[in-house]
Amino acid sequence: MREPDLNHIDSPTFSGMSTLDLGVRRSLLWILAVPTALAVGILVAGIAYYTPTAIIDNALHEAILRAETTAKQMQTMRAFYSESVVSRATSAGTRASPNYKSDPLAIPVPTTFLLDVAKAFSNQDIKVDLVSPYPWPGRQDRQLDRYQLEAWAFLTQNPSGKFVRREMIDGRETLRVAVADKMKESCVACHNANPLSPKRDWKVGDVRGLIEVERPIDDVTHGAKSLSWTLVGGTVAGGVALLIALLVIGQRLVRPLRQLTNSIRDIAQGSDQSEIPHVRRHDELGLVARSLLVLQEQTKKRARAEAKIRHMAHHDSLTGLPNRTLFQIELEKALKDRRVGGDFAVHCLDLDNFKAVNDTLGHPVGDALLVEVAKRLKGSLGADDKIARLGGDEFAIIQQNASDRAVAEKLAEDVIHALSHPYYIHGRQVATGVSVGISMSTEKTVSADQLLKHADMALYRSKNDGRGVYRFFEKVMDAEFQSRLALEMDLRCAINNNELELFYQPIISLDSNRLCGFEALIRWNHPTRGVVPPTEFIGIAEEIGLIDSIGAWVLKSACAEAATWPSDLKVAVNISPVQFNSKLIVLSVISALGETNLPPSRLELEITEAAMLDDNVLTLQTLHELKSLGCRISMDDFGTGYSSLNYVQKFPFDRIKIDQCFVRNMSEEDRSNAIVRAVTGLGASFGMKITAEGVETRAQLKQLQIEGCNEVQGYLFSPPRCARDTRRLIDRVRERARIPA
Questions:
Q1: What is the pLDDT, as a whole number, of residue 287?
Q2: Which residues, 6 or more positions from 584, have their beta carbon under 8 angstroms from its beta carbon?
Q3: N vs C: which end of the chain shows fewer Cβ within 10 Å?
Q4: Which of 534, 524, 533, 518 is CA-nearest to residue 566?
Q5: What is the longest distance spanned by two Cα atoms in the chain?
Q6: Domain total in the chain
Q7: What average pLDDT score do residues 342-365 get?
Q8: Confidence band (pLDDT; 50, 70, 90) for 27?
Q9: Which residues have a Cβ under 8 Å from the Cβ of 224 and sit 6 or more positions away?
Q10: What is the pLDDT of residues 537-567, one digit of tens each?
Q11: Is residue 584 domain-shared with residue 448, that is, in the same domain?
Q12: Of 258, 303, 295, 252, the residue nearest 6 (C-alpha)
């Protein structure tokens, strides 16, 4: 089986390891075999070097011991013969003679006896001899050789020792061992008294000769060498056999390790389908295999978790659509592909009145609505188009192959039509719409952010143009956006720079034909733009979160100014829907009244229907808290919404203000007259005062008087005035109490 390439493996599963180096640089077999071979080689070399020498030395030692034993036996035999035989025989009259063979009545002297015994004892394997530098007559022909002379010199100095040498004699390696033949007490008297003795001054213990044993040892050394090489050969064979056994065992160990290594590689590469081998073994390899099995399961779980995290990082959890991050990636890719070829369009979508649905029906209904909207959007797209939820109720589409505006218009129309149909959610019918902003990719498109920004600008325009429509990005929108951005930045500094100012428009009571109060209207004195009307910056303040601070400033300033007026004059302050729903309105009113000491009855809070779209207990609670302070509550722009009567029925407003659009058309449309008449009748039925705003002609004033309106305001009487002019107007009107006839 071909070994896999494990040198470098890229592993996306292990985030902290960009490259796993699993290369096998040295096999376990190599690690096992080399030391074993070295050990066997050293052992064989040691045995080959030391064993023959040791065996030969041992054999020689044994031979020396035997030779020495033989020589000592000869010494013992001579002593025994001399003391036990010769001494007794001579005492009995028997003569001891070296020529005993020719004298039947004589016995051999000890030396002759020992020489005869040695001769009889000697054979081809051993030779025993007695030699002396002091030979008796008849033995002078026996001369000492070089070895014997050296042995004599040594043994005369070391009588108890032995002299050993290995020599080649007659082509055979021979061991020669000599020991000292010392004078015994029984021999001294005989030798010293005998006239034939070559020396007569012997003393007990003197060395008189040598007892030599010669033993051929070539057979011994040859056998020792054969034995040693047999041992060397056996050791080599055993070492080779051991090495082979270790290699076989190592191979059986390494093969599973390689298989387990392959499994580790598969796990590192993120493969969770490979089967882990050897999990049923009951040894250490089985333990490793089972540990890898656990690791594989944990890696599977981790991979699934990472995949889920990656999906969550790039997809909306509610709708399952790609989120802004993934949409940005797809947009960058589409922009790169466009440079190769292929125009596309970016659609930004924002649901109309979604907040009203979410607030009135609850977040579960709102979430379910978003899911259904996502389904309809996906059904409206082409196969190559991409869709994402950017956040909240905002979606975006990348429309591929959008060669011209007509193709983009067709998709925008399809989307608007698909989302305009009612939804049935949790047993309730829900209606919403969508506004669309479109930007087209061009050769001048520099970035994905620019495309998305342009589509968002177009969406903003479609929202301002009535909603439920689509608009394409135009260059002028960018200028408007930059202007709005600059206005937004300036607005953040307006309060601290004292650029905001309140103007006051008179409110006239038709019941008494007298001035009864003023409506406070905010103006922004911009240092470069001049006077900026509230219609241009209140919406911005609501979007960027400044409306609470601006609203609190308006309340405090209006109450402070009203506190300087006559006590029968009220001040009406408009409350922004965002300000009302921020839940801080009650605290703002309490703070303004407390700091200015204005009686609450002189403060009238004008609230539009938009502020009460969140038709729940908290909204009514806020209204009741404001009314419990003693403030008067009026419904502003009555009739412009779709549920005005519902709010009037649920909460006892003090006043209803008829929107100026109805007043403006009273002299031209009977329908407007009918609406005004109905509102005044409704107010009378509920005990509420009716105020008409936007009165500009005497004809309008006369008709409102006929219909029973209680209060009016408009340019017929006075435009909004600054605080100083308002005080002058109060002084002048007080002198002339009635309105012009």
A1: 87
A2: 548, 552
A3: C
A4: 518
A5: 205
A6: 3
A7: 86
A8: low
A9: 52, 55, 56, 58, 59
A10: 888 888 888 889 999 999 999 999 999 999 9
A11: no
A12: 258
The pLDDT value given to residue 12: 39
Helix axes 585-596, 547-562, angle to 10 degrees: 30
Q: Which residues, including other chains, have CB under 8 Å from residue 516's CB and lie 6 or more apart?
A: 507, 508, 509, 568, 569, 570, 711
pLDDT > 90: what percent of the chain? 26
Three-class SS string for 545-584?
CCHHHHHHHHHHHHHHHHCCCCCCCEEEEEECHHHHHCCC
Give me the CATH number covering residue 132. Answer: 3.30.450.20
**Residue 668, pLDDT score:** 64
**202 assigned to some structural domain:** yes
For helices 405-420 and 363-380, the axis angle rounded to 10 degrees is 140
CB atoms within 10 A of CB 308: 10
- Which residues contact residue 413 at a Cβ distance below 8 angstroms, ignoring those fewer than 6 apart? 470
The confidence band for 661, taking pLDDT boundaries of 50, 70 and 90, is: confident
What is the CATH classification number for the domain harbouring 594? 3.20.20.450
Would you give the DSSP letter of residue 103?
A: -
Contacts 24+ apart (CB under 8 A), 303-309: 303/13, 303/270, 303/272, 306/13, 306/15
Residues 442 and 571 in one domain: no
**Choice between 646 and 522, residue whose per-residue pLDDT is larger:** 522
Q: Determine, yes or no, domain membership for 698.
A: no
**Statement: residue 472 has pLDDT above 50:** yes
149 part of a folded domain = yes
Does residue 484 sit in helix, strand or coil?
helix
Closest CA to 506 of 739, 727, 714: 714
CATH code: domain of residue 337: 3.30.70.270
What tokens does 167 get?
């020599």
What is the DSSP code string of 199-258?
A: -----TT-EEEEEEEEEE-HHHHHHHHHHHHHHHHHHHHHHHHHHHHHHHHHHHHHHHHH
Other residues' Cβ atoms within 10 Å of the Cβ of residue 87: 16
572: domain range?
491-659+722-735
SS3 of residue 88 by DSSP: helix
Buried b (16+ CB within 10 A) or exposed e, 51-77: bbeebbeebbeebbeebbebbeebbeb
Q: Under a CB-based contact definition with an 8 Å cutoff, are residues 629 and 589 in contact?
A: yes
**Structure tokens given for 481:** 């956006």
Residue with tokens 């403006």: 664
Residue type, 414: D
How many residues appear in the chain?
741
